[in-house]
Amino acid sequence: MNFRELIANEEIIIAPAAYDVLSALIIEKAGFPIAYLGGLSNEASDLGYPDLGLATVAEIVRKAGNITEVANVPVVCDADTGFGGSVNIRRTVRMFEAAGVSGIHIEDQTFPKRCAAIRGKQLLEAEQFAKRIRTAADSKKNKDFVIIGRTDSKVVGGVDEAIRRLNLYIENGADMAMVGDLYSFDNYVRLVREVKAPLVVCAADPEHYRLQPDFTLDQWKKSGVKMVLYWFLPLFAAMKAVKRAVSYLKQTGSIEGIVDELFTYGEYSKTVDLDKWLQIGKQEE
Question: Is the pLDDT score of 284 beyond 80?
Answer without folding.
Answer: no
